[in-house]
Specification:
InterPro entries: GH, GH13_cat_dom, Glyco_hydro_b, O16G_dom_2. By secondary structure, the chain is of the alpha/beta class. Among the domains are: 44-115, no CATH class; 235-294, Oligo-1,6-glucosidase, Domain 2 (Oligo-1,6-glucosidase, domain 2, Alpha-Beta Complex); 301-408, no CATH class; 597-671, Golgi alpha-mannosidase II (Immunoglobulin-like), CATH 2.60.40.1180. It is built from 26 helices and 22 strands. The strands form 6 sheets. The protein has an 8-stranded parallel beta sheet with strand order 15-14-13-7-4-3-17-16. A 5-stranded antiparallel beta sheet has the order 18-19-20-22-21, covered by helices on one side. Strands 9-11-10 form a 3-stranded antiparallel beta sheet, with no helix packed on it. Strand 10 (275-278) and strand 11 (283-286) form a beta hairpin. The N and C termini lie far apart (59 Å).
Length: 672
């Protein structure tokens, strides 16, 4: 043994030469990196009826299910942390609820929970910078954005004509809703040909020019990837029907039934059974959405390879990434078992527990990532209905190599409400939601920040329909969205304070979901009541023409618009707001620019203060060299302002004059 090996630790360190320190540090970092790649999750034993409530809450699926249940019941998490409750065995809960839920419910729950044997591991390693964390996205619904040829339908040339507007707004990246060839049963989300452009929108040459013009302006473009299903007019499905012996028969989910009824009780999100019967085959085929949107069989390797090839084709053209439509639905449980009755009644859809977080979801996402996205360093954001924070961590943590981000929808309705309820949204819930995600999502994950998209009504109309508050409320929402940690996604029209439309009758509706729901409701209630309920949550509110000016049809088209608008555009439009320094549009422009100039508003830490104070949302964003403070009044009432120390400089406010108290929906950004 050498003298060096006999030395105490302190003296031993003195033999490490300074020039070797960097090498040692690099090796240590490499070992930590390997550890994080291999050990960022912990395995857990399978859950059973002897498992305790605390064990179920430790499971990512169990956590998110129980968390949402508590929200719906308006109960605190403290309930589950109660020593008595958290140590209850599941079998005791079953005995206590056997009349209301039944043992079958818990059988299904355990089967669902045991799909996931891993749970996230939190390592405080700092945030890894990425371009998609620093940008502001803008979603375009092409059909309603800008019409260039007077046919009443927005198109690619129309989008090109407005790129300078988007650049001046501060947009860095554009997300296009589907522009692929489609029979338009669900406005493009039923794809007939992944390699062609819908004729109403233009040509592939038009798309190539759009992509070039976007990149010329230093912006990026992502497309919608709809691969849970295709149109029934897609060549794959047509061949499956015509030639049952072809490989394409296995591309979809066909089943025979024992009687003349569908193979199981699954229901469609667009009303009715989730099955179509094909007489020529004497078989049924699954469609979770419209009758023309046929679900693909992702367990078929050829399906996955064809999809990977298609993704690579678009990425090789220069597309920067994709938004993945209902991507968490792609893996269905083997055999497509019947949906549990209690779950169906609670959720409003039967069978959902068999596919919303399927057994092979992670496997298939990792496969897409490695085979298609990674070679092009492409960006991905998944639409994941029903998925909560813990499941989202497993889908998006950077060490997992699956998705970059997800859209979680837990904040779009307050507890106890669904989209088609007519109620007033309480922004105090939004505050709680954002604080929870800001504090607990972790540095390895990155949040998407949004209120609106093509599937949801306008946020201003949800919160307060009083026109007197429209402007300050629109600016308040912008302040929150653009100063929190995450990537903002602005939906077209949001930047001018767009609100829900005053549709006059069911004949004004164009959305297949709204039309089907109206037909279903009118069988049980009056036409007036049915229409009122549909209007509360219709997706058509977000799909009316973009309001460019006070000219005919809001400057959207010289023809007849494919969907009606109302008189709102005469006062609320881009042209007027560009001329008004105090407009919602110019508030967005200022905020976006300020966000770009100050990385503390992107990568900085988040600290909420006065968390329990009702109607008040106040927080700090801190970087290495700068610090900001945001204060918001979440109500239509005047509330007392939090006392600020000296040294706070007001950067931006949605009110032009200072006041002692915070006025309705007041929002202020300070530099500390």
């Amino acid at each position: 043994m050498s003298d060096k090996e006999n030395l105490p630790a302190k003296e031993h360190r003195e033999y490490i030469k300074p020039e070797n320190l960097s090498t040692i540090k690099e090796r240590a970092e490499e070992l930590v990196s390997q550890m994080t790649e291999d050990s960022f999750y912990m395995k857990q034993n399978k859950l059973n009826y002897n498992s305790k409530i605390k064990d179920i809450y430790a499971n990512p699926i169990g956590h998110d299910v129980l968390y949402k249940l508590l929200l719906q019941l308006n109960k605190s998490e403290k309930l589950i942390r109660n020593p008595i409750i958290k140590n209850l065995p599941l079998k005791t809960v079953v005995a206590l609820t056997k009349k209301s839920l039944g043992k079958d419910f818990f059988d299904v729950l355990l089967e669902l929970l045991n799909i996931e044997s891993e749970h996230p591991y939190t390592l405080q390693k700092g945030i890894e910078p990425k371009w998609w964390k620093e940008v502001v996205f803008y979603q375009i619904y092409p059909r309603s954005f800008m019409d260039s040829n007077g046919d009443g339908i927005g198109d690619l040339k129309g989008i090109i004509s407005k790129l300078d507007y988007l650049k001046e707004l501060g947009v860095d990246a554009i997300w296009l809703s589907p522009i692929y060839d489609s029979p338009n049963d669900d406005n493009g989300y039923d794809i007939r040909d992944y390699y062609a452009i819908m004729g109403e929108f233009g040509t592939m040459e038009d798309f190539d020019r759009l992509l070039e013009e976007v990149h010329n302006r230093g912006m990026k473009l992502i497309m919608d990837l709809v691969v849970n299903h295709t149109s029934d007019e897609h060549p794959w499905f047509q061949e499956a029907i015509k030639n049952p012996g072809s490989k394409y028969k296995e591309y979809y989910l066909f089943q025979k039934s024992k009687d003349k009824n569908p193979p199981n009780n699954w229901t469609s999100f667009f009303s009715g059974p989730a099955w179509n019967y094909y007489k020529e085959l004497d078989e049924w085929a699954l469609h979770l959405f419209s009758k023309k949107q046929m679900d693909l069989n992702w367990d078929n390797e050829n399906v996955r390879k064809d999809i990977q090839q298609m993704i690579s084709w678009w990425l090789s053209k220069g597309v920067d990434g994709f938004r993945l439509d209902v991507i968490n639905y792609i893996s269905k449980r083997e055999g497509l078992p019947w949906g549990n009755k209690t779950v169906g009644e609670l959720m409003g859809y039967y069978g959902i527990e068999n596919y919303y977080y399927g057994p092979n979801l992670h496997k298939y996402l990792k496969e897409i990532r490695s085979e298609a996205f990674e070679p092009f360093k492409a960006f991905s954001v998944g639409e994941t209905p029903g998925v909560g924070m813990e499941m989202s961590k497993l889908l998006t943590a950077d060490y997992r190599q699956e998705l970059d981000m997800v859209f979680s929808f837990d904040h779009l309705e307050t507890p106890g409400h669904v989209r088609f309820n007519d109620y007033e949204y309480d922004l105090n819930y939004l505050k709680e939601y954002f604080i929870h995600w800001m504090e607990d999502y972790g540095d390895a994950c990155w949040m998407s920040l949004f209120y609106e998209n093509h599937d949801n009504p306008r946020m201003i109309s949800k919160v307060n329909k009083n026109p007197a508050y429209r402007k300050p409320l629109a600016k308040l929402l912008a302040m929150i969205q653009l100063t929190l940690k995450g990537t903002p996604f602005i939906f077209q029209g949001q930047e001018i304070g767009s609100v829900n439309k005053a549709f006059q009758s069911a004949t004004d509706l164009r959305d297949v979901e709204s039309i089907n729901l109206y037909k279903e409701l009118i069988e049980k209630s009056s036409a007036e009541d049915a229409f009122r309920e549909v209007l509360s949550g219709s997706r058509d509110h977000a799909r009316t023409p973009m309001q460019w000016s006070d000219k005919k049809n809001a400057g959207f088209t010289e023809g007849i618009p494919w969907i009606v608008t109302d008189e709102d555009y005469k006062q609320w439009n881009v042209e007027k707001q560009l001329e008004n320094e105090d407009s919602v549009l110019n508030f967005y422009r200022q905020l976006i620019q300020f966000r770009k100039e100050h990385k503390a508003l992107i990568y900085g830490s988040f600290e909420a203060v006065n968390k329990k104070r009702k109607d008040s949302f106040t927080y700090y964003r801190r970087g290495e060299k700068e610090e900001f403070y945001v204060e918001c009044n979440l109500s239509s009432n005047t509330i007392k302002r939090n006392t600020l120390a000296s040294g706070y400089e007001l950067i931006l406010s949605n009110y032009s004059e200072p006041a002692k108290d915070l006025r309705p929906y007041e929002a202020n950004l300070y530099k500390v």
